[in-house]
UniProtKB/TrEMBL annotation:
Origin superkingdom: Bacteria
PROSITE patterns listed in its UniProt record: GLYCOSYL_HYDROL_F31_1 (PS00129)
Protein name as catalogued: Glycoside hydrolase family 31 protein
Residues in Glycoside hydrolase family 31 TIM barrel domain copies: 275-599
Gene3D superfamilies linked to this entry: Glycosidases, glycosyl hydrolase (family 31), Golgi alpha-mannosidase II
UniProt domain Glycoside hydrolase family 31 N-terminal: residue ranges: 62-232
Family: Belongs to the glycosyl hydrolase 31 family.
A single GO molecular function term of this UniProt record: hydrolase activity, acting on glycosyl bonds
Enzyme Commission number, as recorded: 3.2.1.-
Key words, A-Z: Glycosidase, Hydrolase
Amino acid sequence: MTEKESFPELPEFSIEQLEEGVQHVNNPIIGLKPIEKVYLQSVVGYTQQDNSFYFSDGSASVEIRVVSDEIIRVRLAPHGTFLEEFSYAVPKLEQRATVFSFKESEESYRVETNTVACLIDKKDFLISFEDNNKRVINSDFSTMHWEENVDFGGYYVYCTKRCSPDESFYGLGDKPTSFNIRGRRFQNWATDTYSFARDQDPLYRAIPFYIGIKDDVSYGIFFDNSYKTHFDFAHQDADKTSFWADGGELQYYYIHGPHMMDVVKRYHSLTGTHPMPPQWALGYHQCRWSYYPESKLKSLAKNFRDRKIPCDALYLDIDYMDGYRCFTWNKKYFPDPKKMIKELLDDGFRTVVIIDPGIKVDDNYWVFKEGKEKKYFCRRSDDYFMEGHVWPGRCQFPDYTNPEVREWWGTLFKGLVDDGVAGVWNDMNEPAVFGSGSFPNDVRHQYDGHRGSHRKAHNVYGMQMVRATYDGLKKLFKNKRPFTITRSGYSGVQRYSSVWTGDNLASWDHLKLASIQCQRLSVSGISMCGTDIGGFTGEPDGELFTRWIQLGVFSPFMRAHSAGDTREREPWSFGKEYEDINRKFIELRYRLMPYIYSAYWEHHKYGFPILRPMVMLEQDVPLNRNREDEFTFGDKILISPVFEPGQTSKMVYLPKGRWFDYWSHEPMEGGREHDVLTPLDSMPIFVKAGSVIPEWPLMQYVGEIDLEEIKFQIYYSDYEVNSFYYEDHGDTFAYEQDIYTEKKFVVKGDAGSCIIRQSSEGLYTPRYETYELKLIGLPFQPSKLIIDGKEQQQSLNFDELKRVVVKANKNFKEIQVLR
Ligand code: MIG
């Protein structure tokens, strides 16, 4: 019997069929068997233990747990026995201090915190969530239900919610489709999707978290289940939203808003945020499949420096290895990697290398030998090794769900780290296997002691690989920050890695998708994300490449990459006109580096997503629900990238409040659309009035120049606005011991004055002493400057860009610029 026959997949049924429970599975072992769909019956009683309430229908049990004031978890145990608590996404379910009450009425039970109430209907076991104004935000359409899985044991589990006509949906990670996912159906099953198309599903990642907006209130559902999960957002029926899984527990978190930002921050409180990346990782990265031999890499580096195009990292794709054996070098191409990496570093380039999970079956290869001896490779149900063909040929695959294997894997990087490698790129970790796509379902995994087949471990495999990589590098780097990038991942992967969106295509539609995917990843918990600039497959022309570089400046992670069978793809590959514009925009990335870095801090420390879609900025504006072609980076800079060839102007909507055009400094009114010119050497960028935007002097790579001064662009505002500025060593973990500085600026003006206040916390002392502050948009000609109570003698004339430039000590508390 072939593999496929013995482990049939459940065919895809419509929600209606599933609701009715009439379908049959044609099972080759037991024949045609009716699937019995079992629904919860009436509640017969409850018990309470600490923050958890257990409701029973006499057989099944449902746990309602108050996790925090705004988060409530629901779990279902079909026969009353819950699975052991374990989650790769939520490593530690912290019980936050909460005040909650419990009430029983004739019809229902009510578990209530200060912000949210969970109601359990006694008669039909329907569960709903209300806000503290007694508005129903989310409620079951039908009771939670399940079907026995005759092949594997366990259950297919289902939850169907009501969906109102105005409800819109966001999240789910990397789906390459419209930003609002209402009307669509998806699967989460990590898949290698070379040259993926719009609407293709699933892709590389599995992020079972979505956000709904109903009646202007945002809420989130995090369905923490690593099996294949399915989501239907009013696709099958306009009045239903469903999610279900091919196994595991029906376990989900209801996360209350009311703002989308609250939901995302609370999702981060469960699954964690990205650690601070090394600052160089926020520079421009150049990648290609592949740069080799050494002379090629060296001339690439030289080109960047000769042409004065900033760049921080160069990548080695699979050809640097000896026969694609991980942790080895092809000595023909790279005879002395240590020397080469050192020379590149002396010139300001970090070297990042790719590492795949497939280990070549080769008894003369130390990694294979060790893994075999220690029994670290995955096995099939009957104990055969899981073997599959990937780049090295026949391979076996470490079981990264085993903590001992992860530990071992981490140590394998020692050689590369000694050679000077600064970052590791994990690819093919869905896991991808040539021919079959991935592992068969019967492969066994240790699953951190909780055991499971590949059905359970598939979606977390890549995340556990990059976790092993990150943790291993962290040990080897001592106190330096590792840089990792992964293709696959499950919720929580952000704790270990950045992510790129995989093998996209050089087309204008993919440029648009790139912007949507990054925004979507950002609101789905993965802020450090980027796309292959230029498109991985296919050939961009100069215009498309340049527009993609422009988007890339405002992607949290900025890397150009291309497939091996494409023409050269560097910022200068399309002729001088494009090269000059590409340089100008990459330079912009470097000038904005301190702003970008501060946005990372806001993400790491407070759980703010780095990219913020329009609906997150103003969720009460109906048109924003479907606006997907503009966003802000951090909370101060709004970008409206150009997505059409030959486009000379574009309508840009600015949220309420006041804005400035980044290039011309022209003030602009928010709350409406503006027609903005979009010549190729420009791109619509706007800054919120009242912002204090830090800028670095131009550098060719992070750390090239010792800062003597920081510049700030200060945008006048007549209402009070706060800005944050963060700095630290840039590459150590000292920030965890409060060795950082977080500065807060407050700007407030009126017709005759502009006042800037600064306060600061943290223990880091930068070496520079002064600031240069450029005041933009002052509505008056100033004649008096007072810093910390003392009048200053500085010229207050407008410069050619209508700015007033002020010098101040970095520790100033208050600056008054007066008419
Ligand atoms: O089977 O390492 O998505 O970025 O260049 C292809 C070669 C394997 C797929 C990755 C791509 C990478 C390529 N890899």
